[in-house]
Structures are given as C-alpha cells and as structure tokens.
C-alpha cells in the first residue's frame, strides 16, 4: 500500500477555494479501483493549512490518478503558490493500531 500524507499551505484568504477545488477531484480517486481512500481537510484556516491523506493499492493506481487532466490542472494552478509538505510512504506492515 502507498500512503500519501502531509500538509499543503496556501494563502489563508484562498484556502477555502483550494479545498473546494481539491475535493472536486476526489471522485476521480474513488472511481479508481486502486484507491483505498482520499481526503483533503482544512487543518488551520489562519495558516492556510490543508491536511492531505490518501491510500492507494499500488503505484500504478496512484500514477493513473495523477495523470488525469483534472488533477494536473490542480497542480498547475496551485503548485506555484503553495508550500507542499506532502510525502509518499510505502506501508508494508499493516495491522491494528492497538497491536505491538
């Protein structure tokens, strides 16, 4: 499994617009059979912080999502004006969080 997690930061006056546009692409992820979950959540409006959390079955599924024109459009528009602290993680030992 691949996990995409972290925060992006945009101008606080535009954070609601960013969240709305990012969320408008979520249906593209959920129709992808390799998408386990995808979420964009306003974390701190005053800082313009948005929490991104995605889980993908594999890299191929993520690549298909990232290649869609709507997703590319988000990165094209917002990429130059956001601080992106989102990272990709490989999860190889999935288990209940209460287990050691």
TrEMBL record:
Gene3D superfamilies: 3.30.70.100. Pfam families: ABM. Residues 2-90 form the ABM domain. Signal peptide: none annotated. This is ABM domain-containing protein.
């Amino acid at each position: 499994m691949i996990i995409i997690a972290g925060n992006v930061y945009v101008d606080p006056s535009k954070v609601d617009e960013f969240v709305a546009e990012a969320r408008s692409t979520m249906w593209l992820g959920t129709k992808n059979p390799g998408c386990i979950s995808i979420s964009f959540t306003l974390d701190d409006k005053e800082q313009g912080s948005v929490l991104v959390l995605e889980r993908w079955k594999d890299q191929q599924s993520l690549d298909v999502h990232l290649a869609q024109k709507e997703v590319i459009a988000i990165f094209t528009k917002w990429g130059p004006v956001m601080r992106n602290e989102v990272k990709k993680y490989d999860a190889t030992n999935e288990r209940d969080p209460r287990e050691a």
